[in-house]
Amino acid sequence: MKMFTSSDSVLMLIDHQVGTMKLIQNIPFEVVKRNTLALAKAAKVLGVPIVLTTGTETKFQGPLLPEFEELFPEEYAARIQRGGIVNTWNDLEFRGAVEQTRRRNLIMAGATTDVCVMPPAISARQDGYQVQVVLDASGSPYEYSEEAARRRMVQEGVVLTATNTMIAELAQDWSRPEGGEVLQIMKNEVLPKVF
Q1: Contacts 24+ apart (CB under 8 A), 19-22
Q2: 10 Å Cβ neighbour count for 185?
């Protein structure tokens, strides 16, 4: 698999909803939230399209995290509100939004890895897309369901990665005009305990 770049990738954030996020137990909520928002901020700075989607917002899943509407108002307004389709790749509106970007490298994260991310990651791979799943911007209710989802994705050719690795891969060159801003996102939000 070739390295992803900001000019050939699209970021798909799946079901980072107030209720669904509570299901994540294998990684701290604040870590997933911080990494998800940092990933989206970096994507925005680098010109990577962002496609947001939610499951049924009126049920226990609830709305997207409120930070999305504040930080990404256009993407929030354009979010794909699925009626209950589990595999987002099977939702024609969602898939259409991804296809409209004309990008074949898909970056996925979501709540939860085992139910919300694994099916579309595998389906997209089977349809010939390159897929990377950002594990620390995702999570599952149980460690064994997370591990099983990871194994299935890897068997299908999905690449597993982390937020800082994905951001660096997209940036490719810290001296580019956006490099300083992306480095600040990494320093302040992804790696705050290091600095």
Answers
A1: 19/59, 19/60, 19/61, 19/62, 20/55, 20/61, 20/62, 20/111, 20/112, 20/116, 21/65, 21/111
A2: 21
Kindly report whether the global pTM for this prediction surpasses the value 0.85.
yes
8 Å CB contact between 79 and 53: yes
52-93: pLDDT as tens digits: 999 988 888 999 999 999 999 999 999 999 988 999 999 999
Q: Which of 13, 116, 124, 153 is catalytic?
A: 116
116 is catalytic: yes
**Does 195 have pLDDT greater than 70?**
no
Pairwise CA distance, residues 112 & 54, whole Å: 12
Element (H, E) at 119: helix 118-126
- Containing H/E element for 70? helix 66-71
Q: Where are the beta strands (DSSP E) in 69-158?
A: 80-81, 105-110, 130-134
